[in-house]
Amino acid sequence: MKRDFKTWMLVLIFGMPVLFLAFIAGLYFIPCGFDQDCSQAALPDIIHTPIPTIIPATMIAADAGGEAASGSGKCIISAQTLLEAWVSSGYPENDPFEFTDANDTLCEGTYKDVSVLFNEANLWYPGALACVTCHNANIAAASAQMDLSSYAGTLAGSRRTSADAQGNDILGAGDWDASLMNQQLFVLKLMPFGRPPGAVADEGPTVFAGTPK
Description:
This protein has helices at about 1-30, 80-90, 110-120, 130-135, 150-155, 180-185, and strands at about 75-80, 95-100, 105-110, 205-210, 210. By secondary structure, it is an alpha+beta fold.
């Protein structure tokens, strides 16, 4: 019994350092191999992320005196001022008319600029229908038997008995203050139909229209 105990003690005394050295060597040689530069190491393959290299964003420098400062070169104006200028100029279809925008810039516009006020939804207030939704070429079903979807329809007026008939002049023969359009939109504030109280500014929405003259 004593001999077995003595044998085991000798094994432990001399074996522990050997095991310790083997452990240390294993930590180095197992991952790196037997080269100093770890060239024989059995390292796992590098897994690349699928996200491509992000290209640094660049911003286009704005021209302080050019189109960037004026909404792509357009003037800024209220609906009332634009409509008044158009009607007072004789409501031309193709010829330009002059107006002064909100920045006191002398500008020129055309009927195309005016027609946006009739054709665009969500313009007068959020959720607003376009004017032409109710006032269109289907005179029999159109509200007030009025067509704002075209130049000819606008000039034909309201309360028309048929598509070929002339109705009530809504442009006041060029007198903005006497026009039904001014009365309905800005004096009585009855249109656009269904406008919530306070949702529309007194001069109507502000839009980009025309170009500086």
